[in-house]
Amino acid sequence: MITTVVADGKNEYEFIDLLKKRAQNSDKNVVPIVSEIIENVAENGDKAVKEYTVKFDGKAPEKAEISADEIDSLIEKCDKDYLETIKKAAANIADFHKRQVQQSWLTTKNNGVMMGQRIRGLKRVGIYVPGGTAAYPSSVLMNAVPAKIAGVEEIIMCTPPQKDGTPNPNIIAAAKVAGVDRIFLMGGAQAIAALAYGTESVPKVDKIVGPGNIFVATAKKLLYGTVDIDMIAGPSEILIIADKSANPKFLAADLMSQAEHDRLASAILLTDCEELAKETEKELEKQMTALSRKDIIRSSVDNFGAVIVCSDMSQAIEFANELAPEHLEVCCENPMEYVGKLDNAGSVFLGNYSPEPLGDYFAGPNHVLPTSGTARFFSPLSVDSFVKKSSFIYYTEDALRKDAEDVVRFAETEGLTAHANSIKVRFDMK
Q1: Per-residue pLDDT, 13
Q2: What percent of the chain has pLDDT over 70?
Q3: What are the domain boundaries of the chain?
Q4: What is the DSSP letter of 65?
Q5: Domains 3-26+234-377 and 45-99+121-229 in one fold
Q6: Which parts of 324-402 are beta strand (E)?
Q7: CA-CA distance, 395 to 112, in Å (whole number)?
Q8: Which of 12, 326, 329, 356 is catalytic?
Q9: Does the CA dihedral 18-20-22-27 come out positive or negative?
Q10: How is domain 45-99+121-229 classified at the architecture level of CATH?
Q11: What are φ and ψ of residue 104, in 5° steps?
Q12: What does R_g of the chain's alpha carbons equal in angstroms?
């Protein structure tokens, strides 16, 4: 049964502490295992990757890389309606992310000084896509489409084989639609290591993005610095703010849409209406019985779910900003009035007909979002995640002469005499 909490300035924050602890409950035994895998792949390349694929996935493919002909054959196995759906979704995602593109810029001053910023895509990006029980073609689109728009030169995708050693056709189809350049059939921490260091067949990448289990997440964390990564994702979260105008059937359904991800997922309702809280709890119990992942939902809702009754909407907003959830639904009569008040959230869904799954799959905004309260300072995956920026400066002799004394003073104040000397030698300064 989901927990009911009456907000009093204490109870609700105790619940936040519970959620924070849940996010920290990672298996300490995973780190040495993953470290060994990383070291082995760095040293032995493809041989090590193949051995781990047999060990963890049951069977290794004859060739790790999937050819263009194989990709086309796999796509033919996909449902035609599904293919049309991913094309529509990719178009929506592209339309949204094209609006994020920044331009390089140059500015000039009257004294001849020029400076600016050059923006360009990363050279090579690796995308990891789970392929077992958690096979998510939507993740391919959300990671690859903005990378392509950013101007990434080459996108490499790794996905584990199915139990029979073959790729998941739906994932391969999404990769083709999204513009992935090369696809390798390998998974787990070994795939992350292969992308980070490069092997005989897998090229070394500059950044690794995409979801995965605790072994994948740990590998990304350990290899951060060797490559860039998107983020370390925690358990999924949904927070719903609702007033008396909301439909309890909708609220219950949306809460469970995230609870089914993981037993550690959190699903929370904030409302100032006690009657709505009670009706939503009833709907949860009613709808849950018909769902295929009801056992996972039950565990998630019972342990990390809550219905929090607030004194008013201001208290609900304050709590939402403190929790900083991954997904935030606003099911209120006038949802737009709250947009400017909700500062900490990965993605915000406004109104009764903007449910969270719409964002997961189709609408356009990215579904790779900060979790575990990190929406206070992290942003969703975007085109910016796949670019690098360099500044440039051009000074004339006269312009440098004018600023020379100030630069020298700064350098000498910091005790960096060689810095100062770099300026002095140009103008015979003492």
Answers
A1: 77
A2: 98
A3: 3-26+234-377, 45-99+121-229, 396-427
A4: B
A5: yes
A6: 327-331, 347-350, 387-394
A7: 7
A8: 326
A9: negative
A10: 3-Layer(aba) Sandwich (3.40)
A11: -60, 155
A12: 25
DSSP summary character for residue 156: E
Instruction: Look at the block and give the residue holding tokens 């391919």.
Output: 140
Q: pTM for this structure?
A: 0.93
* pLDDT tier, 224 (very low <50, low <70, confident <90, very high otherwise): very high
C-alpha–C-alpha distance, residues 168 and 161, integer Å: 7
CA distances from 197 to 44, 81, 135, 193, 335 (A): 11, 39, 25, 6, 47
Residue 227 DSSP one-character state: B
281 carries an active-site annotation: no
Three-class secondary structure assignment of 73-115: HHHCCCCHHHHHHHHHHHHHHHHHHHCCCCCCEEEECCCCCEE
Instruction: Report the amino acid identity of residue 316.
Output: A
Residue 367 annotated as catalytic: no
Ordered alpha helix ranges (H), 102-213: 137-150, 169-178, 188-197
CATH architecture designation of domain 3-26+234-377 = 3-Layer(aba) Sandwich (3.40)
Out of 327, 329, 356, 367, the active site residue is: 327
